[in-house]
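Input record (one chain):
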Amino acid sequence: MQKKLIALAVAGLASGIASAQTNVTMYGVLDLAYAYSSGNAGRNGLGIKIPGTNTFSGITGVGAGNRLGFKGEEALGNGLKAVFTLEYGLDPDLNCGIGTCGLNARQQFVGLASNYGTVALGRQYAPGFNATANNDALDASDFGIQSSLSAINGMTITPNSPARFNNAITYTSPDLSGFKASAIYSFGETRDASGGYNDKQVSTTDNGKYGLGLNYANGPINFDAVWQSRTNVVVPTAAPPYQLAGTGKSINEWYVGGSYDFKIVKAFASYQALDNNNNVRRYGGIDSSDLWTVGLTAPIGRGTLGLSYGRLTTDRNYASDGVSWGAGTQYTYPLSKRTSLYAAYSYFSNNNNVLLPGQAIAIPGIVGATGESNYALGTGITHSF
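The corresponding structure, as predicted from the sequence alone:
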């Protein structure tokens, strides 16, 4: 009898635990493509032109970043619930998975959600990530114009990894008649170059980041406004003074973008700017820059055709302005709700004052250079689950 009572008690306890378990969903994206790229490699130190680069290869994450993720929630009562997301990058082309080939987590956070909004802790998207993805006619793919130009310029308002902040706390408001606000703060906690802390020289607030975003989505209209800042920017060193002199000021960015769906076509536009308050003449970098894009999408058959153009101007107080511009097109054809084929083309050009290593097309590698142009053409398949 005693054994039966114990067994019943254990079964009841297990049942109670099972009913309180988190509702977990596994999801992911697999994207593989083949692309051909060609570009001029510029000139060497003697002014002699370097032969161009032509590459044909298999690549991954062109139309969408490859990932494997887990997300879930648990009801805690009175409208409160716990939420979490664990999402990791993959590279099927190189047989790289979680923890290999230098792949990092895309997102890792846990938080609480209610009717008043969501507060979360961990590695998360800054407002600029979703804003730029919302307003890109080429779906923020690797062929995307805004994606490439913002990445080469070192902007954090981009649909790329710089818009994911580590060690961050976020707040996301509920939807209020189409309006949604978001905020993020990332604690810098900068270590010196040897991997340790020196409280007298390296502040735990160095290289902190914050961002504010506002989105309005209602019917055919989408609008985003974003402000992001990197505060007290320093470069850590292994020996005293543990950080480079002349650094330690902010890099500020802002962005406005939107789209309007006319049914026949959907129009996109964005403008963003960066202002670096650090001594860039001594340590390199960009004083300020601005980037604008325009684009259109239109239904063609069962698929969608997108067109985009963008122009990046980089300003240095001690040099002439560098100008890079790009144009591209992409056609996406859905085979089902989860599987689609795509083909895309992008072209970039740099003037002779571009002082960066060169505007690089992200697919499949660096083929751009100062005063030169390059292009890429590719096709692939995306499957989400």
